[in-house]
Write a structure and sequence with these properties.
57 residues; alpha+beta; 3-stranded antiparallel sheet; 1 helix; 3 strands; 18% helix; flat
Amino acid sequence: MSETLEEGVVLVRGSAAGFAQEIRAGRHRLLADEPIAAGGTDTGPGPYDLLLAALGA
């Protein structure tokens, strides 16, 4: 899946194997995950970090 999504479309993909999520918004790609202390693998910012970043954007 390397095509650009339409403006305003956000796609979130994950698996049942853990908490990591791939987030695509337009031509941008982000990773999100829970910290290790919460059972994740810390491959990206956690949900609360992303929420705070969105509020500051």
